[in-house]
Amino acid sequence: NKKAFVELLFWKSPAAVREMTEGYGSLREGEGAGRSRVPPWTPQEEQELRELYWKYKGVEGEDVIAAIVARLPAPGRTRRQVVKQLVRL
């Protein structure tokens, strides 16, 4: 490919560089930066997250995200993961 050098100028992650050097499709599904670390949200967890958000949304003087993280049934979720999922929902 004559234009491969342009792609090398715009790296996105070490996994992308590895894929470019070893050939596209060399990474198996689920490998790469951060994909295997974060477990996916189940529908039950999403429903619980919605309910907790609506419950603590109107409480004044309390951090909504901190209240949600403290009361989530699935341990191990970080504040950042909760915020990201709320934005996605």
List the defining traits of the structure above.
89 residues; single chain; 53% helix
What's the short story on this structure?
The protein contains five helices and no strands. The protein is mainly alpha-helical.
Protein model, in words:
With 89 residues, the protein is mainly α. It has a domain at 43-88. 53% of the residues lie in helices and 0% in strands. The protein has five helices and no strands. It has helices at residues 4-9, 14-22, 43-56, 64-71, 79-88. The longest helix is centred in the middle third of the chain and has 14 residues, at 43-56. The chain is elongated, with a radius of gyration of 19 Å. The termini are far apart. GO terms for molecular function: DNA binding. One of its GO terms (biological process) is DNA replication checkpoint signaling. This is TIM protein. It comes from Steatornis caripensis (Oilbird).
